[in-house]
C-alpha cells in the first residue's frame, strides 16, 4: 500500500468540512476534475471507497469520514512538527549571534567562546568572520548581538567596550635590507614604501593609515591588498614587501625567524580592540556573559 500525499489528505479533509468536492477544490485553488482525480488515486492506494458520487453531488462514505478524521490528525501533527522545528531554529539563532574582525576571530575570540561554552555546553552560537567595518555594521543593524572590531575611529550608533589592547608591528623577511637596519625606520620612509596591506574596511588597515596621518605623513602606500592577517604574513615571507600587522599574528613567525620585526620611529601603532553592540541596548544573557569573559581576559593579559 502506498501512502497518500499530503495535498490529497488536505483535499479529503476539506471535502468533509465543506461538503463537496467543488468547494474543496476551490479552497485549494485547483480545478474540480483535478480534485476528483486526486481522490480517485487515494481510493486506489488505500483500497477503499471514500467518496459517494451521485447526480445530486458527492459526499464522503462512512469509510471516507473515518479516513478524513485520521488525515486531520496527521496534518495537525505535521503542523505541530513544523511549528516546533521553527521555534527550535529561532531559539537557536537567537541564543547568541557574534561577528568578529579577522584578527580577533583568528587569535582571541575562539578562546572567549570556548570559555563561554564550557560554562554553558548547550549554547548555540553563530560566529561570522568578516572585517571591522562589516562587523560594526552587522551590530548596528541588529543582525548580531555582539561584534568585535579593531577600528580606531568613532562608531556611530554603537556602544562599545575595550576588550583587549594590541600593537601593530612592521615586519620584513630576513632577506630584506630593513632586517639589518641599525636605526629605526622613520615615519616618512614607511609612508613612501609600498606595503602589503589588508583590504579597505579592515581595522588593521584603518589603524595603519590613521597612525601615519597622525604622524603627518599620510596613509600607507599599498603594494598588495589581502583579506586576512595570515595571507599578509605569507606574502611578506615570500618576499612581496614589508607589512604592518598585528603582533598577535606574527608571534610564531618571528620566533621561527620567518619574519623580522623592524622598529618604527615617530609612529604609534598601539590600538584598542573593542566589543560593540547597538547603542541604547542593554546586553543580557549569553552576550553579556561573552563580553564579561573578554574583558576579564583583557585584564589578565
UniProtKB/TrEMBL annotation:
Keywords: DNA-binding, Transcription, Transcription regulation. Residues 4-61 form the HTH lysR-type domain. InterPro entries: LysR_HTH_N, LysR_subst-bd, WH-like_DNA-bd_sf, WH_DNA-bd_sf. It holds the Pfam family HTH_1. This is LysR family transcriptional regulator. SUPFAM superfamilies: Periplasmic binding protein-like II, Winged helix' DNA-binding domain. Belongs to the LysR transcriptional regulatory family. Gene3D superfamilies: Periplasmic binding protein-like II (3.40.190.10), Winged helix-like DNA-binding domain superfamily/Winged helix DNA-binding domain (1.10.10.10).
Amino acid at each position: 500500500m502506498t501512502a497518500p500525499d499530503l495535498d490529497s489528505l488536505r483535499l479529503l479533509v476539506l471535502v468533509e468540512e465543506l461538503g463537496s468536492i467543488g468547494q474543496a477544490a476551490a479552497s485549494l485553488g485547483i480545478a474540480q476534475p483535478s480534485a476528483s482525480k486526486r481522490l480517485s488515486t487515494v481510493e486506489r492506494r488505500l483500497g477503499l471507497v471514500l467518496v459517494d458520487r451521485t447526480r445530486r453531488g458527492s459526499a464522503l462514505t462512512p469509510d471516507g469520514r473515518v479516513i478524513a478524521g485520521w488525515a486531520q490528525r496527521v496534518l495537525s501533527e505535521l503542523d505541530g512538527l513544523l511549528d516546533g522545528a521553527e521555534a527550535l531554529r529561532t531559539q537557536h539563532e537567537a541564543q547568541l549571534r557574534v561577528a568578529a574582525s579577522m584578527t580577533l576571530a583568528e587569535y582571541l575570540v575562539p578562546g572567549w567562546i570556548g570559555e563561554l561554552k564550557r560554562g554553558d555546553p548547550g549554547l548555540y552560537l553563530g560566529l561570522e568572520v568578516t572585517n571591522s567595518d562589516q562587523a560594526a555594521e552587522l551590530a548596528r543593524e541588529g543582525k548580531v548581538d555582539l561584534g568585535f572590531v579593531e577600528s580606531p575611529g568613532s562608531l556611530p550608533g554603537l556602544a562599545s567596550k575595550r576588550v583587549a589592547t594590541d600593537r601593530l608591528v612592521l615586519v620584513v623577511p630576513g632577506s630584506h635590507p630593513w632586517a639589518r637596519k641599525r636605526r629605526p625606520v622613520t615615519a616618512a620612509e614607511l609612508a613612501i614604501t609600498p606595503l602589503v596591506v589588508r583590504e579597505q574596511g579592515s581595522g588593521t588597515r584603518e589603524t595603519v593609515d590613521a597612525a601615519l596621518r597622525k604622524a603627518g605623513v599620510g596613509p600607507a602606500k599599498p603594494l598588495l591588498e589581502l583579506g586576512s592577517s595570515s595571507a599578509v604574513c605569507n606574502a611578506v615571507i615570500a618576499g612581496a614587501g614589508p607589512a604592518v600587522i598585528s603582533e598577535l599574528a606574527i608571534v610564531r613567525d618571528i620566533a621561527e625567524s620567518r619574519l623580522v620585526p623592524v622598529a618604527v620611529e615617530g609612529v604609534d601603532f598601539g590600538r584598542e580592540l573593542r566589543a560593540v553592540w547597538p547603542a541604547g541596548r542593554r546586553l543580557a544573557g549569553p552576550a553579556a556573559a561573552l563580553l564579561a569573559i573578554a574583558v576579564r581576559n583583557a585584564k589578565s593579559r
